[in-house]
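Readers of this paper often ask what the protein records in our data store actually look like. Such a record has a labelled line for the sequence and another for the backbone structure tokens. Nothing more is needed to write down the fold, since each code stands for a local backbone conformation. The record that follows is passed on verbatim for readers who wish to inspect the format.
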Amino acid sequence: MKKFFTVVFILGMLCTAFAQENHVLKYRNVLNIRNIPADSKDLTSFAFCDLGSWFGFALPAEDAKEYRGNFAGPYLVSEGCWLGKSLVKFSMKDTKTGRDIDLSEGKLVEISYYPGCLTQKYLIDNIYLELYLIFISNRTAVVTAQLSSIDDSPSAVEIKWSGNVFENVAKISKSANEITIKPEKTTRQLFVHWGSQAVKKAETVNNTYSVEYENNFLIEKNKYTSAYLFVSQAQNEAERKKEQVLADEFLGYPKKFFDFNRNRWNGYLSKITKTDEDFGDDFDYRRAAVKCLLTLINNWKSPMGSLKHDGIVPSYSHNYFTGFWAWDSWKHASALAYFEPELAKNQMRAMFDFQNSKGMIPDCVFIDSTQNNWLDTKPPLAAWAVWNIYEATKDKAFLREFYPKLVKYHKWWYLERDHDKNGLCEYGATKDTLEAALWESGMDNAIRFDGAKMLKNNNEAFSLNQESVDLNSYLCAEKVYLAKMAEVLGFNDEANAYMTDSGLLKGKIQDNFFDKKSGYFFDISIDRKKYIPVYGPEGWIPLWALAASQVQAEAVQKIIFDSDKFKTRVPFPTVSADNPKLDVKGYWRGPVWLDQAYFGIVGLKNYGFINDAGRLTERIFDRLDGYIKSDKPIRENYNPFTGEGLKANHFSWSAAHLLLLWLGK
């Protein structure tokens, strides 16, 4: 017991220090994850994940007294469901009187989500209780109950952990030193365990469990007594044993784990709360930047099943977004490069692990590889992302690793998506499937594709019957990035060739896609006999890619600032405001998507419209519902006229691009 209490004392001091660390303390409850799920499919409730965990926990609401001491969940990301209302509940009993100490009768000090840590604090009689939940690996969360006395009267208590799962969602069983939770629809089990701590009794009844410690806990003034519970997920026996060993390592030296957590999160915060932009000193904007950070880290997922590297899912709170998508990954990596570069590199690897022999990258990949979508890919922004990572890290080895893969992917577009071999590519699919071809654009149901048809290139390649200005602009930019990489790596002939090709493609973009009469860039029919006159984001992508002339850029700038076109309350809708087909809730037929807004703002900067870009950036920050001065989640897209958040909550590429705008990247 002496050894145990010594370890506990160290941890108690450390937990308090963690909560008081300056960077962390400033950003309390940036996102609202205080909720108890009503049922397993309650997607209105949100959770905290970290270190790439595939499960996460939530806090009880401040007014939910019956759930004090509970950590809600966990939420299982790969299954898109809640395992239970609360798998972790702390309770205690006064050993002298035998009375249960009711947390609901005590004083609530705080229920908080700090970056990297969930916290609950209560004062019950003379006992001060602090509960902390952090992740110590991508598979394990540890909950710490820390107790002290506020006066000179010592107390002795018995401590119990308990929890439950929803009926018909999982089964609970007990072995010698753990409680096993087996979800119905997956072989990936969770287990509750306590390492080398002495336990008097552990039992399961129906869909509940309880664990009682063998020894009483003495609570004294100015001393800390702590108890711990571990929740782990494992996809095989080797992972199970690894997490059990980790739990005992934690018990032996908890300071190492809390130091790592604290230092990692303070490192993140110090990197993303500094900016050279004009709004950089405003705390509300910094807090919003932290919201972007939390969104990305909550969506971080580690290798599992066929996924060999860490990456970011689009949204852990949507039961479909449980894998990695191609152009989502390029966008995530570009933002991650500035605060978690190793994760950014792995995000790229996670998709290129699946590159096929022709060079194609699939649209999306999952834990179960049979679900991977090979019908299409996504717009070519991978070289942009790799170059962003290189600029942030100067890691030439990473550049050397990816350069040949990017070259292969770049060539694939011209082999499989240039129907008439004129050097201008089209979106398409590996089968004669119009829906998949539209997915390949990333703008699934955009109005510009309403009349599109499919053309056969070969048995495994089909193209739309229109050449898209955004696709060719992305390819033009990619040539420049490949040239820069080749130059860094000493491949001077290749660098010169890519720069020459980019210049030729730039001329084709200016000559073929720009309508002088309208002053805007449009897609064209594959025979180049007509423009497809839909004003959409594709028309400002040439500015982002530096593929427009200055005169053309000035014409596009006027249209962006036309309130009948794109200068709506929240600017950059996905179709001009005067289009009769505009639908503010129509996915790519009206809502603002923040990746496209980002490309528009960077495009304006590229051609000298610095003040214009700044004004539109502030308009976006200030008018997105719930972004500034709110704990609401970042959304998939937004109503251009009201700023209302639409579709999925906690959307990663929205967070990535808001963060890039904030950082001025």
Q: What stands out?
A: Residues 2-248 form a domain with the Beta-galactosidase; Chain A, domain 5 fold (CATH 2.70.98.50). Residues 1-21 have pLDDT under 50 and may be disordered. The first helix runs from residue 2 to 20. DSSP finds 17 helices and 31 strands in the chain.
